[in-house]
Amino acid sequence: MTDQRKLLERALVQLRETRARLAAAERAAREPIAVLGAGVRLPGDVADLEAYWDLLRDGVDAVTPSVDTLDGHRPKPADRPENGRWAGLLTDVDGFDAAFFGISAAEAAKMDPQQRLALEVAWEAMEDAGLPLETLQRTRTGVFLGVYNSDYLTLQYDEPATINTYTAPGGAHSVLANRLSYLLDLRGPSMAVDTACSSSLMAVHLAVRALRQGDCDIALAGGVNVILNPISTLVTEKVLPMAPGGRCRTFDAAADGIIRAEGCGVLVLTRESLAADRRMGGRVRAVIRGTAANHDGRTNGLTAPNPRAQADLLRSALDDAGVRPEEVTYIEAHGTGTPLGDPIEVEALREVYGGGSLPCALGSVKTNFGHQEAAAGVTGLIKAMLVLEHEQVPPNVHLRRLNPEIDLAGSRLAAPAELTGLAREEHAPLAAVSSFGFGGANAHAILQAPPASPEADGALGKLVLPLSARDPAALVALARAYADRLAGCDAEQAAAVCAAAGTRRTHMAYGLCLTAEDPAELVTRLGEVEGGRGAIPARPPRVAFVFSGQGSQWPGMGAELLRREPVVAAEVAECDAVVRELAGWSVLEQLTDGDRLAETEVAQVAIGALQLGLAALWRSWGVEPSAVTGHSMGEVVAACAAGALTRAQTFDLLLRRARRTEEGAAGGAMASIALPPDRVRALIGSDRVGIGAVNGPRSTVVSGERQAVVALCSQAERLGATVRRLPARYGFHSPMLDGQDELLAAELAHLRPGRGTVPMYSTVTGALIDTEHLNAAHWGRNLRDAVRFSPAVSAIAATGVTVFVEIGPHPVLLRDLGETLEEAGVRYRAVGSLRRGRPAADTLDRSLADLYRAGLEVDWAAVLGEAPAGVPLPAYPWQRRRHWLGEAPQRADLAATVPLAERADTIALFVRRRIADALGLDDVEQVPPDRPLADFNLESLVIVELKGQAESELGVSVPLQALLRVMHGGTALDLATMIAKES
């Protein structure tokens, strides 16, 4: 009995599981599909959705006299057609940004303009969706594109000798979709769809099915149509009635046939359940509730429509959508404008949609453009989407008197001739879209307005704007477009634009990143991007974290940072708990408003806690080190950052080390001498002073008893060397610590370092060190021996690291680091983290901008937060060149066209503004271009930062030594001329 019960229970469990799977499958088979974005290229110079809606709303007739396009040129339309034909034509079909897609000019010349259009419009649809390319590549992304014409391929048949390896893929319909999948590295289904006039809506239908079945998670779906060869129009008019009056007069009594038209439209689709994921862009433009496809069957002719089949199609789509026909309040009809086709279509529409009390408007975009054939369905669908978005129905152009064969009496259907409001009930309004192929293949879709977009989590505030392009000139154009976009924005709106630019755009090879305190400053700085020199090709660089030592601290150094950055606050809180247990005082208090930073113990521990917080912050932003090193006490923190020491070990070591320093080195002195270490060593004649640090090729620090240090400095000055007394009151790394190193090592006998996860370069040895060798004896040497900073940096650079981030409360190593790397011939980028007395944002944001400019992959969501849904951003500025059959490819003029003097004037203004900023001056005129820069007494850190800003924002290489020479003896204009020559 017990066994039978177990069997019965197991059977019931299996039954419930089976029912659950069947229910899930049923839900998946009917799951709505979200439209995340769309791109269009349509007659009437329509290149985006805003322009498309303006054209529809205003009832614009975009039809012009037809022109033959055998040579690819589209002359300005005449008043009357020379060939008697009219058409809805695109303005430009020979231009293409081949370089953006990595296509050679030779191949681009053989590519059907339909392929070129589809590539650009698909990219624009991705941008409208707010989906970076990486998102499409991480998921299974399918491509479904409708295509019908082959004019460009047929143009080549007359000259067989010109056919080459690019001809077949350039003209094959299949490659229209396949090339997009190939170039963007998309792995889902990829297919071209040819059902003639219904091709693009059929492509959408297939994409919906593929998404529901799990064949892909994102789909690019749409279609394209370009008319080039007059022979194809001749072929068309032998099959379809061409309008002698030159317009598609849909629903009108004067309807007399179609005219041909061009266009391209692409949608970005995903399942509604996936659309809620923030990584999908955060906005839904519309929801496709259901679709259906069928065929007319055997009618009285292959191209003759079938009202019964059309009515069946509409019902199938409604059933798939799970909605009642009376809920639909707008129908985008196929609406070709033929005297018999329109009444047949409306008969089926009335039969299915005619009942109910809520008014339902009929429309056809063919009255604006003509019949776009393979692109007609998607153009109509995007129109329907805009109708739902704006809750207005555009006029049917040319509708003067309803076709007497169309009977709308007693139905809720109407064809408006002027802009009208969209009828709606409590629920989001619904629309329907039809598209019929002249071979009998039909498609219908049910579309619904989207739900309200969710609110973005967290407040936005940082004005850090990353921009990138695949071409320097495009980057300049993009900067200008963003300047226009940001003009008049308040701080919140500008922060949203920055966040969207960081998280919802693909980051490319040429980049810049600008920071500002307010939107007006951001607009000004965007206007300063000049001549395409704001960027260089980015290569993923390797990064080193450089932890500075004591002397970089300042009162309140962590106050703003802890308020501004939760990641830092969390790390410092962990450190504070450790320090309270070990030392009995709060490092958190000392970082915010403490008064004990003059004490060695407090200073070193506070610096260490802040450094660990900064390292955690940089890592949270996507900046991961390939190597770490530390100067003096900074080596202890570097060991922790490398994973060799725990927090408890780190602060125990810092506390013990500080106490040994206090006991042995108090009352000493230090100085920096601008000579190589060998020259300084030769000057030392006392055992009370020694070399404390080798910071650069000509930067040697001496340390020891005060009188001995003073005497040594006097010797160096008599030789003409520059000497700088350091404010330290200790003789760090000097003979004063003899014996203290052994005591420290004895205290640390218990220390057992672990195996680090990041390579560590020791400034004790000047080389890579096995972190398991960071034992007690090593830390004794770290206390007493000279800091071999320059050799450690050289060793790191020898491994290919080119980006250095100084981790500390104030940059004290950047100049020495730069001189070391320049001596080694390394092209590098070095930035600080915080700066004494400056807002945290001032240095952190600018440093992050420099790292982005250097090619680092930044986690912009972590930096800037999630942008609100639907933040409009400028589209990519295509750098098109003419590509056509039989023509030599155009070459880009890469030479600098701006005269040196003119560039120098522009750069001089840039230099003067940066100096004014550094000095806290309100007016750039307070820094005259002809005044010696030495008069401004700029500290070396300002000079190093100016070098970084020039390289980051002007895209030039500025040698540090040359910069120092001009700064000491030249003017702003002299400096600008030097930079201009370098560029």
Automatic annotation (TrEMBL):
Residues 905-983 form the Carrier domain. InterPro entries: Ac_transferase_dom_sf, ACP-like_sf, Acyl_transferase_dom, Acyl_Trfase/lysoPLipase, Ketoacyl_synth_AS, Ketoacyl_synth_C, Ketoacyl_synth_N, Malonyl_transacylase_ACP-bd. Pfam families: Acyl_transf_1 (PF00698), KAsynt_C_assoc (PF16197), ketoacyl-synt (PF00109), Ketoacyl-synt_C (PF02801), PP-binding (PF00550). Residues 30-449 form the Ketosynthase family 3 (KS3) domain. It comes from Nonomuraea insulae. This is Type I polyketide synthase. Keywords: Phosphopantetheine, Phosphoprotein, Transferase. It comes from the Bacteria. The keyword Isomerase does not apply.
